[in-house]
Write a structure and sequence with these properties.
Shape: globular
Largest sheet: none
Distance between the termini: 46 Å
Number of helices: 22
Structural class: mainly alpha
Oligomer: single chain
Number of strands: 0
Radius of gyration: 22 Å
């Protein structure tokens, strides 16, 4: 049977099941099984695919990083993180709005989750900024956009899944996300400074903090800073694999939770429950996507798709831009991780066939997923922030994220023009 027919039937079945309300993991798994049964006639290829996911050492990092983030969340360090960020940047035009971005960026580096980042920092920040009279759109927009940094700044669950599905080194992907994460954070901060300087009424003057209190607030951030240094430093220096770094990070977080006297059976049970629930959902998504990939690969659909795409009389850049637009379109209807696992089996072979750097594309893909997390009607971060402050209409949050969305689009353009932004730091890694 022609590969075009197989590809069309497969995509149509996935779309039909998703529209019908079937969970993404179940939709992918069912389509993978049906494709193997109908077009191959035997299921051995699926047994191997599911076993390869279940025994993938890299994927063990997912529950460990989630557990690390849960422990640090329950330890109360998020309040210390926000206070320290305010002490560092409160005097710059925009005041505590900068604390939103910096706190999200730092917390993202320990949680790996955009939703958890937005919810945690938003819980601390919204009451404080409302009390001081900050313009609500800037508050809500900065928190929703800042939360998206959770899947770019390592450790990133999205990058772990990308590395596992595309057979790319997760440690290299983590290090590749550092410079783009810093630049995107600076772009967000720069926009806030420029906007507040043009309209000072958006943010009241920041109250001066006594030097002693400022120093103590900054010092209070050291547990989180130390955790980040241990995890990323170990990976960068080649001392630990990402999975080993996740285990060490989780143990470090456990020590800090004990030291702050926040650990009891109730907290531990809650952390474990959330870890198992989230990790199981992500692993089943990867298994479902792997079943589809295995079937399409066995039938040589992906090989033929790559050959057909590379034979087109258009430039690789034009195809890349089309892929960007497709991600932005489908991001309006799917959450980030689901979008990633559904599309990668087809998109990644095309990207590799066109000669684009797979490490660079991993970072570009994460930025596209970040943008998808802000677009209606399925903008998860927007709904999280609205849930924390329901007195404002949902449209106010969407209006607030528009400038930050365009900052991401600008940065994605820069990253496409200069891939070295993502590839330089990994090239200096040891081990």
């Amino acid at each position: 049977m022609p590969w075009e027919v197989i590809a069309t039937v497969t995509v149509a079945l996935i779309v039909l099941l998703l529209i019908s309300g079937v969970p993404v993991a179940a939709s992918l798994g069912l389509v993978g099984i049906m494709t193997a049964y109908i077009f191959i006639g035997r299921m051995g290829v699926l047994e191997y695919a599911s076993w390869s996911v279940g025994t993938n050492f890299v994927l063990i990092a997912i529950p460990l990083f989630i557990f690390m983030g849960q422990l640090l969340l329950r330890s109360g360090l998020s309040k210390s993180l926000y206070d320290g960020s305010a002490a560092l940047l409160g005097g710059i035009p925009g005041g505590l709005l900068h604390s939103n971005i910096i706190s999200c960026a730092i917390f993202a580096a320990i949680s790996g989750s955009s939703v958890a980042t937005a919810a945690t920092i938003g819980t601390v920040a919204i009451p404080e900024l409302e009390k001081r009279g900050y313009e609500h759109r800037m508050v809500l927009g900065s928190l929703a956009a800042g939360g998206t940094l959770g899947i770019l700044i390592p450790p990133s669950i999205a990058l772990i899944i990308y590395g596992a599905m595309c057979e790319q080194p997760v440690g290299t992907l983590f290090i590749a996300g550092i410079v783009p994460g810093i630049i995107l954070t600076l772009l967000f901060l720069g926009y806030i400074v420029a906007r507040v300087m043009m309209r000072p009424q958006l943010a009241p003057p920041f109250e001066k903090i006594p030097l002693k209190r400022r120093v103590l607030s900054i010092i209070g951030m050291w547990p989180i800073a130390l955790t980040i240094v241990i995890v990323l430093g170990g990976i960068y220096l080649g001392v630990m694999t990402p999975t080993e770094a996740a285990a060490v990070g989780a143990f470090t977080a456990l020590v800090f939770t004990l030291a702050y006297r926040q650990l009891n059976w109730s907290v531990l049970r809650m952390c474990l429950r959330e870890t198992v629930k989230t990790a199981a959902m992500l692993i089943f998504l990867v298994i479902g996507a792997t079943l589809v990939t295995a079937s399409l690969t066995y039938l040589r659909v992906t090989d033929n798709a790559v050959t057909w795409t590379t034979s087109l009389a258009v430039s690789p850049l034009a195809i890349l831009i089309l892929i960007y637009l497709l991600y932005l379109f489908f991001g309006c209807f799917m959450d980030g991780v689901s979008l990633e696992v559904v599309t990668l089996p087809v998109v990644f072979p095309i990207i590799a066939g066109l000669g684009f750097d797979p490490i660079w594309f991993g970072i570009a893909l994460v930025i596209l997923i970040e943008m998808a997390m802000l677009t209606p009607p399925v903008g998860l971060n927007v709904y999280v922030i609205h849930g924390l402050c329901p007195k404002y209409p949902l449209t106010e949050v969407f209006i607030g994220i528009i400038p930050f969305f365009f900052m991401m689009a600008i940065f994605l353009t820069i990253l496409t023009a200069f891939p070295i932004i993502a590839t330089w730091l990994p090239s200096t890694m040891r081990g």
